[in-house]
Amino acid sequence: MAITLYDATVLGFMQTVNAMQGVMTRALEHCTQTGLAAHELVETRLAADMLPFRFQILSVIHHSVGAIEGAKRGEFRPPGESPAFDYAALQNALTQASAQLASYASADINALEGREVVFKVPSMTIPFTAESFLLSFSMPNFHFHATTAYDILRTKGVPLGKRDYLGSPRIKR
């Protein structure tokens, strides 16, 4: 069986986005149990020169739904300024991202293969094919930001493990 672009991207994005929803639910439970304020999590950083938790979650969305939409348009740009979302708004944004990912038809995503996608930053334009963009640029960025969000929550004492990050793997039925 050949793996398709849809299988390699959308299904993987959905697995991790859904896992991040669970991670955020667990973190909110931890806040309730320990008295930690959820708004404190939103602005937490691993290091002073890193962006906060809210940016990490929004980047998970940007490098999944945003990447698919960019591939469809033929152009992708870095995210704009990160809105000052509160915890509930971040959870809602993940829910919306999950629904958007679930709405993509495999044939439409697979049809992107071979199309040009340019990554535009103010100082340059980087050309990709849709599959190279999604697999070699967006996917690593997506996992970087999901892992960073997970790590921020771990530093705040949220009891998470690898299974929380993995979510629901696509097992043989």
Structural features:
173 residues; mainly alpha; 3-stranded mixed sheet; 9 helices; 61% helix
Low-pLDDT runs? none
What kind of sheet is the major sheet?
Answer: 3 strands, mixed
| Percent in helix | 55-70%
What is the ordering of alpha helices and beta strands?
A: HHHHHEHHEEHH
The radius of gyration computed from the alpha-carbon positions, rounded to a whole number of angstroms, is 17 Å
Description:
The structure is a single chain. The protein has 173 residues and is mostly helical. The protein has helices at 5-8, 10-34, 38-42, 53-62, 65-73, 87-103, 106-110, 130-155, 162-166, and strands at 75-76, 116-121, 124-129. A three-stranded mixed β-sheet has the order 1-2-3. α5 (65-73) packs antiparallel against α8. The protein starts with a helix and ends in a 7-residue tail after the last helix.
